[in-house]
Amino acid sequence: MCEDVAVAALVLILTGTFALAWGPVRGYLAARVALLSLVGDGEPTRSLIESSKPVYARARVRATARRVASSVLWLTVAMYGLFLVTVGLEVIR
Q1: What is the mean pLDDT of residues 45-66?
Q2: Which of 31, 48, 50, 57 meets the CB 3.0–4.6 Å disulfide criterion with 71?
Q3: Number of Cβ within a 10 Å radius of residue 78
Q4: What is the DSSP letter of 53?
Q5: What is the 3-state secondary structure (H, E, C) of 13-44?
Q6: Model pTM above 0.90
């Protein structure tokens, strides 16, 4: 029984550490791509056509919102990884 608890704690710590390391990396990459899509001027004709649309209907704005949401979700995964590590360390005690 004690060995099963130790294995479970080890699994929690390892998966939590992986999520804690991978979440911020993916979150940073998603946020960087989101900001890069807004920084560029884009094609002049397309920018002129999109400027006549409402803000929520513009393709660049929707893509940026989707990428920012993805970034926040990856940061949530990292926070969950931190929780898993904490639980794993408490189980070992």
Answers
A1: 78
A2: 31
A3: 20
A4: S
A5: HHHHHHHHHHHHHHHHHHHHHHHHHHHCCCCH
A6: no
